[in-house]
Amino acid sequence: MPPLLEGISEAFYLILTFDPYLMRIVFLSLQVSGTAVLLSTLVGVPLGTFLGLKPAGRTRLISKLLYTLMGLPPVVAGLVIYLLFSRMGPFGVLGLLWTPAIMIIAQFVLALPIIAGLTMIAIRSRGKTIQETALTLGAGKLLTAWTVVRESRFAIFGAIVTGLGRVIAEVGAVMMVGGNIAGRTRVMTTAIVLETGKGNFELAVGLGLVLLLIAFIINSLLYRFQEGGKNSAW
Amino acid sequence: MSPLCTAVHNELNKERGLRKMRFFKQGVKKEHGKGATLYFLFPVICLMLAFLILSGCAQAPAPIAPHPQEEASAEPVEKPVEEAVADKYIIMATTTSTYDSGLLDVLLPAFMEKYGIEVQVIFKGTGQALELGQRGDVDILLVHDRASELRLVEEGYFSDRHDVMYNDFVMVGPAADPAGVKGMAKVTDAFSAIAGGGYTFLSRGDDSGTYRRELKIWEKAGVSDFRDWYLSVGQGMGDTLRMTSEMQGYTLTDRGTYLSLKDKLDLEIVLQGDPVLFNQYGVMAVNPQKHAHVKYASTQKFIDFMMSPEGQDIIASFRIGGESLFFPGKGIKD
Question: What CATH class is the domain B86-167+280-328?
Answer without folding.
Answer: alpha beta
